Amino acid sequence: VGIADKHQFQAETQKLLHIVAESLYTEREVFIRELVSNASDAIEKARHMQLTNQQIMNDDVPFEIRIGTDEDKKTLIIQDTGVGMNKEELIRNLGRIGYSGSGDFIKKLGENPDKASIIGQFGVGFYSCFMVGHTIKVYSKSAAPGSTGYLWESDGSGSYTISEADGVSRGTKIVIHLKPNSYEYAKKATVETVIKKYSNFVGFPIVLNGTPVNTIRPLWTLSKSSITEEEHKQFYQFISKSYDTPTYRIHFSTDTPLSIRSLFYIPSQHVEKYGMGRMEPGVALFSRKVMIQQKAKGLLPEWMRFVRGVVDSEDIPLNLSREHLQDNGLIQRISAVLVKRILKHLQDESKRDPSRFETFMNEFGGFFKEGVITDFKWKDEISKLLRFESTAELPPTEDLKPRTTTTLEEYVSRMKPEQTHIYYITVPSKSVALTSPYYEPFKAKGIEVFMLYNTLDDFVFSNIGHFGDKKIVSVESKEAEEFLAANQEKQTDTLDQAEVSAFLQWVSDAVGNKIAMAKTTSRAISQPAIVVDHESATFRRMMKMMDPSKQ
Ligand code: ADP
Ligand code: MG
């Protein structure tokens, strides 16, 4: 074994080490994620060599990541059987920031108070272990046949040494001598929790103190046909920490313009209806099977918080910090692709099996209504999925199951030729709707009317506003009144003009300022008179809500 060479870190690297040691990452535990993903990358490279018929050293040694904790020695060891590094590679890769424009990088860091976002664009991977370690030893041996083993060692303060070392096997072994404030990482339980959190799906076995920890296959990266139903169920229950069977599954990948591997599950039930409070987002963000954020915000819109699953994109830098995910342009672009695919899938499902979809909507419809109100971008697509009761006799589904709700699209397909609007009535119950004087003239003409039973639905309808070129209006609206007047049956008037005027005058005087005006109408059929209001019912209710004296 030769004498240790002493090397200075590049000036920029020294500054960076300082920043890292002061803990840029919001959670220090991510150093484990960084080292495990480096180990996985190194094994991937070795496997690639093997697959392309290049010789690797000790090719009988299995590809795996071995992690060992030692509470007495206060050390954490992470070892892989990957490509390893020779002396030049140790100097090049660990002696400086591994990218050409490092000077610019530091300059940007200096100028920008928002350091985490800059770091996110580059990456400090390996150096993150200086957050927890006072001394780091890296034993490495390149996979190239005939290589020598080396020990790289540093206390992170300005220099490092490299010396030849005996007994080093193929790959890299990193020994972290923990700082007193980081002794927890010498505990098996702590390390295991962190591995399960971030690195559960790394493609090679992770063996912690002799036992494999990552036993679940990363289903989203596999081909659909290679996954069994049972595996899906287990995976879903694992990621969602629940015990139901999901209603729908959406598994898709894209390569351009973005690389996305995703797998979503839509549960069969949710807890918000029990008043358990607002659910957190249920989709985790990964980059190459390594978790970036567990409950990723901004990946799907808020109203889709009931969706569980995984999104993996190689385009996402591994250490993009949490705070900056949400307003990241890349995330927004990924989100647009995801939302479109999920909505499309649900639209297909609603046609493929309407009664199943109806059951689903009975449980989850509230989220979609929230979507119509809050998510302007997807409002039109969401409104295609909504289902409401209507006065039409709905044909049973193909498998003869009865249906109680219908979509706007189906409604439009049943519209009368003379009909230009979509009508709804807001009532406390179906029986009230069917006997309502407002519905009566529509019923007489055989025109279907949606029945809404609460203020939320009323608000949802006024938010949708239009479906295609059809305006959605209340049966109490001015548009409804005009439609009925234009389409009334010829009647033989029994009063002459003068008598009508005199009568209307009498009504006005009798009712006083409670009404704006009295006029003849074609809409009252079995009722002598009817009150109409040309503002929307929602508007009236909102006014009422704002003015307590009217409640
Ligand atoms: P990144 O992984 O983004 O390149 P890191 O700081 O995590 O940045 O690692 C720097 C470089 O060091 C890697 O690109 C790789 O070449 C080398 N390296 C780090 N860990 C290992 C390892 N376990 N085995 C082989 N090479 C490694
Ligand atoms: Mg790395």
TrEMBL record:
<feature type="binding site">
    <location>
        <position position="80"/>
    </location>
    <ligand>
        <name>ATP</name>
    </ligand>
</feature>
<dbReference type="GO" id="GO:0005737">
    <property type="term" value="C:cytoplasm"/>
</dbReference>
<dbReference type="GO" id="GO:0005524">
    <property type="term" value="F:ATP binding"/>
</dbReference>
<dbReference type="GO" id="GO:0140662">
    <property type="term" value="F:ATP-dependent protein folding chaperone"/>
</dbReference>
<feature type="binding site">
    <location>
        <position position="34"/>
    </location>
    <ligand>
        <name>ATP</name>
    </ligand>
</feature>
<feature type="binding site">
    <location>
        <begin position="100"/>
        <end position="101"/>
    </location>
    <ligand>
        <name>ATP</name>
    </ligand>
</feature>
<keyword id="KW-0346">Stress response</keyword>
<dbReference type="GO" id="GO:0051082">
    <property type="term" value="F:unfolded protein binding"/>
</dbReference>
<keyword id="KW-0963">Cytoplasm</keyword>
<feature type="binding site">
    <location>
        <position position="172"/>
    </location>
    <ligand>
        <name>ATP</name>
    </ligand>
</feature>
<dbReference type="GO" id="GO:0016887">
    <property type="term" value="F:ATP hydrolysis activity"/>
</dbReference>
<keyword id="KW-0067">ATP-binding</keyword>
<feature type="binding site">
    <location>
        <begin position="121"/>
        <end position="126"/>
    </location>
    <ligand>
        <name>ATP</name>
    </ligand>
</feature>
<keyword id="KW-0143">Chaperone</keyword>
<feature type="binding site">
    <location>
        <position position="38"/>
    </location>
    <ligand>
        <name>ATP</name>
    </ligand>
</feature>
<keyword id="KW-0547">Nucleotide-binding</keyword>
<feature type="binding site">
    <location>
        <position position="93"/>
    </location>
    <ligand>
        <name>ATP</name>
    </ligand>
</feature>
<feature type="binding site">
    <location>
        <position position="85"/>
    </location>
    <ligand>
        <name>ATP</name>
    </ligand>
</feature>
<feature type="binding site">
    <location>
        <position position="322"/>
    </location>
    <ligand>
        <name>ATP</name>
    </ligand>
</feature>
<comment type="similarity">
    <text>Belongs to the heat shock protein 90 family.</text>
</comment>
<protein>
    <submittedName>
        <fullName>Heat shock protein Hsp90 family protein</fullName>
    </submittedName>
</protein>
